[in-house]
Amino acid sequence: MKDEYFNYLLLIGLSYGCAIILALILRKMFNVIIKRNSSKDDADPTNLIFIKNSISFLLLLIATSWVFHKIPYLKNLGTALFAGAGVLVAIVGFASQKAFSNIISGIFLLIFKPFKVGEAVRLSSDNLFGVVENITLRHTVIRDFEFKRIIIPNSRISEDVIVNSSIEDAKIRKHLEFDISYDSNIDKAMDIMRTIISDHQFFVDNRTEEQVSNGDPAIDIRVVNLGDFSIKLRAYVWAEDYVQAFVLQTDCLKAVKEKFDQESIEIPFPYRTIVYKDKTNTSTD
């Protein structure tokens, strides 16, 4: 009997030990493959990363099934639990509902690919914006632009509205808006904006050959609103991705403001006129 128990313990130890060692070896192999493919421009590491993150879970699941199958006591125990303990099965099933939901959602994310690793996405419900860094069976890791990692369950992502800035073309069209006073020269303000924006290192000329031959401007600027105290000008500017578009926007806002000051183009602010009424109290006898 002792020898039998020893053999069972040895079987369990070898099964889980082999599963863990094999998982470590396969994960290292996948890391090497992912690193080699990352140098290719059209490489998509999403599938490889998902499989790498799933290896440990799958091998441990296989090892557990093997142990239950090879040890008669555990095999009979498992059969009895699933056959006779309906309440227990229901409780375990309900408790693991979320876990299985995350796993199924992770598989669907891999199949339908609303986003890939390395793409910039925004989740509408939380207004969360960042770059997809990792996808596992349970969750997706998104790195925001403060380099914080946000871990989100896959089931929650699959139910959310996802804005993908990179799914077809990573280029971003940014809207740069400036308010000028009614006394300012509109054409002069537009020329200043075009010059500063076009000189920026991250500006992208997104015109087609036909638009270039027709002489269309590289930067389209329009009057979009006549407000109570200002005229709103909007420049439609292209950049390679969200990060470069953000840098372009902040640099140009500063440079245009400084140039407007030099050229006496006013960026107005709201004016309020406050009238004080002098109420004199008169009395009659």
Give a nutshell description of this structure.
The protein is an alpha+beta fold and 285 residues long. It is 51% helix and 18% strand.
Report on this model:
It is a single chain. By secondary structure, the protein is α+β, with helices and mostly antiparallel strands. It is 51% helix and 18% strand. It has a five-stranded antiparallel β-sheet. Strands 6-8-7 form a three-stranded antiparallel β-sheet, with helices on one face. The longest helix has 36 residues, at 2-37.
Distance between the termini: 120 Å
Shape: elongated
**What's the alpha carbon Rg, rounded to whole Å?**
32 Å
Can you count the beta strands?
8
Secondary-structure element string: HHHHHEEEEHEEHHEEH
Secondary structure tally, helices: 9
What's the helix and strand layout?
Blueprint: H1 2-37, H2 46-70, H3 72-84, H4 86-95, H5 97-112, E1 120-123, E2 128-135, E3 139-143, E4 149-153, H6 154-158, E5 162-164, E6 172-180, H7 186-198, H8 209-213, E7 220-226, E8 231-239, H9 242-262
Antiparallel strand pairs: 1-2, 1-5, 2-3, 3-4, 6-8, 7-8
Jot down its keywords:
285 residues, alpha+beta, five-stranded antiparallel sheet, three-stranded antiparallel sheet, 9 helices, elongated
